């Protein structure tokens, strides 16, 4: 019998040796099995080379299409059952919550609304505000240049007085451009069309304001401009700092403007210093509230409604009209008290 010590003498263990020292008999070959290497395929087993793949992937909700998971831009598993992924940024993109027209976005909607998505980043908000106020300063500079040219250039003053038809041309151009910018949301977002329309509107409005100022004394116009600057600056700082949300007052302000218009029609048939002062004071107060409202709409953030960053032209137009109306009403008050 082979002894384990024989291993150190160069004697290997015989086949079938069990470590206990007892040599076991070889395992008998079962009948029917071939002796060559490899076994033939058995019934029900796949052929050599791997298991057969199923004819198609299951179609249950959430499974990817054959060929792997879809590429970026398709719904990933987890949005099955009708759930909609978060809205994408930008107008007209699939899944976007942005409407086709400009307007206010409710920050209380699911996911924060478009205003929350648009102003979630501080850099986006600050860039939008800088763009709005940069364009607004250019508009006010054009208006100031027109007023100065009409007040201190005698040739231009006489030319305007001799051609009253220029007033109607400016009025028509102002209404056409205003309608295009406010009622055609897609047009107000396309560059450079929106900038060209805004420039034409600014020129027409500046012409009309300058023609209005030639009926007042120079010191009255300068005083009105100074008061308007102080009032608008103070209201802007207030809109930035206050915790009161003025964006929910849009309906009330619209009704107030309608009442002011009706009062203005009545004032035409009953002219007088008192009714002029009442009308101008009401207009200055209402448009001061509108300046706060439009400023907070531009800021977004914690306010209920906000303007999309793509509607920067609409934001500029709103602030510019508020400032111009405040200036005209202050000038009317000063002119009525000094007359």
From TrEMBL:
Its main location: membrane. It is found in: Membrane. The keyword Membrane applies. Residues 20-36, 48-68 have a biased composition (Low complexity). It is a multi-pass membrane protein. Keywords: Membrane, Transmembrane, Transmembrane helix. Residues 1-68 are annotated as: Disordered. Pfam families: Bax1-I. InterPro entries: Bax_inhibitor_1-related (IPR006214). GO terms for cellular component: membrane. The chain crosses the membrane at residues 132-153, 165-183, 195-214, 220-240, 252-270, 276-293, 313-336. Residues 37-46 have a biased composition (Pro residues). Belongs to the BI1 family. This is Protein lifeguard 1. It comes from Bemisia tabaci.
